[in-house]
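Narrative of activities, Objective 1.

The group set out to show that a structural description can be obtained from nothing but a protein's sequence at a throughput compatible with the screening campaign. Below is one input-output pair from the validation batch, recorded exactly as produced.
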Amino acid sequence: MRESVFDILIRRWPVLLAGLILGATTGVVLDLTGSPSYTASATAIVASSRPGGGDGTDSAVPIAEAYSRLADDPPVVSDAVAISGVKVDPGKVKKIVRASASPDVPIVEIFATRADPIDAARLADGVVQALTSQSNKASGTLGFVLRPFAPASPPTARSDPGALFQGLVGGAVGLLLGGLLAFLLPGWPRRLRPLYRSQFTDPREAFPLEADDPGRRVN
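Output recorded for this entry:
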């Protein structure tokens, strides 16, 4: 009797259960032993540097988008590190600092991610101050300046997925590996051979025309 793949997995369910438990446990342990991630955000607004503020919002929106692209530049991050006192690995700046700009209003939002929530808030504020300093230097040419709008607050909740998500991902991977292991245990070629065996066991069944022709001989 041909044994289906589903039957094989059901018969080897302890292997699947062991893979599920081991994978979920590994995911939770890796999350608990790793460094947590906290993301703080600070905002800045682009305003006219000319007396009376003659320039409108529509002109300031592109300036805000330009400053959002400068948030993770090495000179800006270097100034932010000096202002905040938070150490940043230069090779991980793109993952630690990011920014976004609103398409409707000239506001730039800075996000900083660190293992300590206070450091995350200090770094986000430091990036805003560094961008403000850069905008002051170019205010005479651009006619706009970047000003702090809302300072960052230390986040209370982690920004990483957490132990539950890591456990679910680890359990799924462990279940997949357990299923593969179920087929690699002794005896799997014999169990899978019927799945690939030809349905014709007699050559005359595979070649009915030659078998019916008396002038030809089937080997």
